[in-house]
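O-succinylbenzoate synthase: structure tokens wanted.
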Amino acid sequence: MIIWTAWRGDIAFKKPLQLKRGSVAVRSLLFIRSEQQGSICWHEVAPLPGWSQETLMQAEAFLLANQQRCLTELAALPGIPASVSSALWLAQLPEGIGPVRSNQLLLSGESIAGEPSDVVKVKVGVQPLLQEIERLKTLLVTLRPGQRIRLDANQSWSYTDLAQLTQALGDSAAIDYIEEPLLPGLGYSDWQRICPYGYALDESLHSGLPQYHPGLKALVIKPTLLGKAKTLSCLSFTAQHQTGLTVSSSFESPLGLSHLKRLARQWAPNGYHGLNTEAYLQTQLQTGPEQALRPVTQLLHWQPLW
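Answer:
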């Protein structure tokens, strides 16, 4: 029989993180500790404020309401929060072996010169288009041979914008793909006719699987936000249509990141993923005997749910 308990813990960001609903200085998480025949497993429940469909309090209420159920029964309940379903599933995946490569996020004002990663992610769609184009021109000429950039537009551009971007940058093989380029409501059926670069989908996956169109290069999946069922559907989609897969984090702790890396090793071992967010948090994986008591270090707050 599996015995489980749940805890709430807070971890400080090294510097406040800007999210949809303002600045956040502390990452609040839930941790499930399961034990079977002396073997202990930690699961991390990490809804992200402003992005997840459920709040941390709603995930906590779900666990409290079902604390008498076994974990297998809990995982099969209808209406299980996405962050809980992914937490119970990911921790059970085979750990796998080998490193997981990540793209490096280039922040505003940072130079790409000397950046060791072969794939660099650049946030765009924030400044006026002409300013974005000039910045991208500068970045492209400073890339070393074989280095690529991924543009994350967060649904900011129209097809007119893309035509202007393409005219200015040309058919650059150094642009790996543009993530969520189009404004909400615009479809991708005309993509390949207008834009030579591939595109990737991320936040639109929350509404369901996309229709496949030529030019779709990858799905960027955040299992913590999508939950187990939607993540599995996305994985099947990438296999069916032979698209790439990028596993991306939602500012989980090192424990949650270690579980996401299991998925990346299993489904896209040669890809570049968005799993380098560990540097944002003031914590590390716990080691030694203490690991049975707390999964990570430097917790600001640690309290059992019951």
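The mean pLDDT is 93. The chain has two domains: 4-94+283-304, 104-280.

Cheers.
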